[in-house]
User: Fold TetR family transcriptional regulator from Streptomyces xanthii.
Amino acid sequence: MAKQERALRTREALVNSAAEVFDCEGFSVASLTTISSRAGVSNGALHFHFASKAALADAVEEAAERRLDQVTQRGTEDPNALQCLVDATHDLARGLREDVVLRAGFCLSSDQSYAGERDLRVEWRRWVEGVLKRADGDGTLTESVPAQDVMLAVVAATVGFEVLGARDATWLSYRTLTRFWQLLLPRLAAPATLDTLRAEGVHGPRAGNAARIGHQGREP
Amino acid sequence: MAKQERALRTREALVNSAAEVFDCEGFSVASLTTISSRAGVSNGALHFHFASKAALADAVEEAAERRLDQVTQRGTEDPNALQCLVDATHDLARGLREDVVLRAGFCLSSDQSYAGERDLRVEWRRWVEGVLKRADGDGTLTESVPAQDVMLAVVAATVGFEVLGARDATWLSYRTLTRFWQLLLPRLAAPATLDTLRAEGVHGPRAGNAARIGHQGREP
Assistant:
């Protein structure tokens, strides 16, 4: 039992270490020796758990997929579907800032030298499509705006934040996401729900006393 | 003179071939032999023009930068700064669809295995910032929307279209860009100019008889 637990911990350390190295160097350049030594294990232990670098990348993507599922599941808590979308983008941005496994999983989706089975951006797109369909159905999305057009804009912008954020974390900041939603929500929300929506998200650091989106002023 | 011209043509063929290979495989995996044989020249000719793979990538980025300059220069023709921005995003998307050099130049900007001197996404961001400052100054941008927030949304979305478009060209289609602007322009444009703006761009395939953005209906 203790042995099994140790094996699980070694595997997890290898997945984290691989995510760090893929995140810094990309898949093709990453060396298995760097990954194992960063995890504090031997090359032999690495090969016991993973037959190849591709198997390791697959494990990173799988772990990242589970974390993306957590983001989108938490993003279904609010009864207002548009608020769910706002909250999930904040959670995703925080995850990409703080969690190297999630970041590496997204990076691997566009790494030409690694053709994995998963594509986290496609999974994110599917979730955004679903939640907007819900917003369309329950009338929180304004009638004059097609849900599909909103999906295009939101998925493109969040993927842009993710890619630009890899070089400059400002793109993934709480403030950037809040400003994005302050811009977009008045165009998307049905007039009756606009005043109840929080561009800063309901889980955000200033969620308690933040201004509602209808009342933000012009920046200096 | 003929010899010099031949040398220039060989150099150009190598830059195009390198762009194709970088675009497909990424910088680190790309082989110089594949690049030279695809250009129809010897390895020796490649090394006569370029000392290293990094020098070749630098030449691709330089050529891509010139093409981006053409996009943004053409995007200053319209007296309405917001229309300039719309037109330039359409031109950029068309360029990324059709021109492998421009596409490879943008890709190299986020390739972890190649640390070049240029970053086309940063150059694009600077241009978007400038044109929005102009729109803010001349009153085509509505007063209630900070130019900096519009910059964040437009740069993130266009970078998203670029990255997603590398796997699925629909993201860079004329229709996708038009729908993006149909969504955004009513939130950005000062009421007096909204009716004069064309979400489909003034250079687009249907520019002659396209509907103005104020009057689009809900999609089926």
